[in-house]
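Backbone-to-sequence.
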């Protein structure tokens, strides 16, 4: 098959030094809510609790996580103290120059307001033109941490300073995400709200989404920033249009709590991980399920998928070039699945990691980190397949550019004056799983 393995993930030499430090007597073992790599792939943020019960956020830096020249001293760039347990993390760095997407949307020197970087946010961004800003979020790398007590701390990684503390959530902040062009921070909490903050306006909170009676477990911006996904208990998956803040889709398909989500690189696909033992891949254009990734075979019946089943999925991540997705599961397995390689959703590779809690992949796709509830963070080389080694075709790259340019207007692809097979390609029809016989019969009846 096209996704045959060339190279399996292997433990990196750096891993031993990291394990010795994290499991030393200096720290207590305990649950990892989240670990995260920086956009530049050089930093890794890890929360820990010391023997005195104090909560710390360790920021490690390495220019090459794969180096074999390991010193005895761990390369800790910063060690930030937090007043309560750390529930969520997100790095942010503003793009310093206009992207190719922005240039493509320039007409007569004016930026057309269709994409993420161009959506009409100027009315709520006083700081974009203000000379009285206290903080500059346009240059450096920043790290946001959502705390159990409801605060959000934001540090400047280049200087080590605590830049902002945002206080509006009434309970634990269990999800964070920051856009790369417009530096918008989305946070979700056990207090049932989603809050949106403008870091270019000194962290001004400009919107609260409050439509639920239960907590929201994760929020994610799409790479083009035109979509925001929110997931939570009882199969909740909501997709917002970030220009109008209307709900585009309430995606129905999961049978249990949805705990994590991730977009692919052109924002046309959304993956959601659930305690029903499945990851579902959705089209953000039509709201349809493109693929289903089971973690328990056979897939549990509805009554078991909705309860304790031994295969709760805890975390997922998508590789930068959309070759595969990786999941951490309650059954002590970390699994790799094909994403845009072909129609198959069969597992490529799995690795046993006891009590795996969270997975993270560097933006350069070279390194994978896996955290466990007993205090370990495993560093692996990333999985390499034949497909990931191949140079991306012009057709593949064109789809990425077109989908990013269209943003929330992706449905207009159906109206383009191009052959139907190219429209199907834009809509990822070539990877859509084949319907079962029962589904075919049902469609004919309809």
């Amino acid at each position: 098959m096209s996704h045959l393995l060339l190279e399996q993930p292997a433990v990196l030499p750096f891993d031993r030094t990291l394990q010795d430090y994290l499991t030393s007597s200096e720290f207590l073992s305990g649950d990892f809510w989240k670990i995260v790599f920086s956009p530049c792939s050089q930093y890794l943020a890890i929360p820990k609790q010391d023997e005195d019960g104090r909560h710390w956020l360790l920021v490690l830096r390495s220019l090459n996580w794969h180096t074999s020249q390991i010193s005895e001293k761990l390369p800790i760039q910063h060690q930030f103290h937090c007043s309560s347990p750390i529930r969520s993390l997100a790095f942010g760095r503003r793009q310093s120059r206009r992207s190719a997407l922005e240039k493509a949307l320039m007409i007569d020197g004016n930026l057309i307001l269709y994409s993420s970087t161009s959506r009409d946010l100027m009315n709520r961004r006083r700081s974009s033109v203000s000379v009285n800003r206290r903080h500059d979020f346009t240059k450096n790398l920043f790290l946001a941490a959502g705390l159990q007590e409801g605060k959000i701390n934001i540090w400047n990684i280049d200087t080590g300073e605590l830049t902002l503390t945002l206080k509006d959530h009434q309970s634990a902040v269990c999800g964070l995400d920051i856009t790369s062009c417009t530096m918008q921070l989305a946070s979700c909490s056990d207090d049932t709200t989603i809050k949106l903050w403008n870091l270019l306006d000194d962290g001004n909170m400009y919107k609260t989404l409050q439509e639920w009676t239960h907590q929201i477990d994760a929020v994610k911006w799409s790479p083009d920033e035109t979509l925001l996904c929110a997931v939570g208990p009882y199969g909740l998956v909501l997709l917002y249009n970030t220009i109008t803040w209307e709900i585009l889709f309430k995606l129905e398909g999961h049978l249990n709590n949805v705990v994590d989500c991730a977009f692919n690189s052109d924002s046309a696909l959304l993956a959601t991980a659930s305690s029903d033992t499945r990851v579902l891949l959705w089209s953000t254009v039509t709201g349809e399920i493109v693929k289903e990734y089971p973690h328990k075979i056979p897939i549990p019946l509805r009554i078991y998928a909705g309860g304790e089943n031994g295969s709760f999925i805890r975390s997922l991540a998508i590789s930068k070039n959309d070759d595969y997705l990786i999941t951490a599961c309650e059954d002590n397995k970390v699994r790799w699945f094909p994403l845009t390689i072909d129609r198959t959703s069969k597992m490529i590779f799995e690795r046993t990691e006891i009590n795996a809690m969270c997975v993270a992949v560097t933006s350069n796709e070279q390194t994978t980190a896996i955290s466990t509830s007993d205090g370990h963070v495993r560093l692996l080389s990333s999985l390499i397949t034949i497909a990931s080694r191949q140079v991306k075709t012009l057709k593949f790259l064109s789809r990425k550019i077109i989908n990013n340019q269209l943003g929330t207007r992706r449905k207009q692809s159906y109206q383009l004056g191009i052959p139907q097979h190219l429209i199907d390609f834009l809509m990822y029809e070539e990877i859509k799983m084949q319907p079962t016989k029962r589904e075919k019969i049902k469609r004919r009846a309809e």
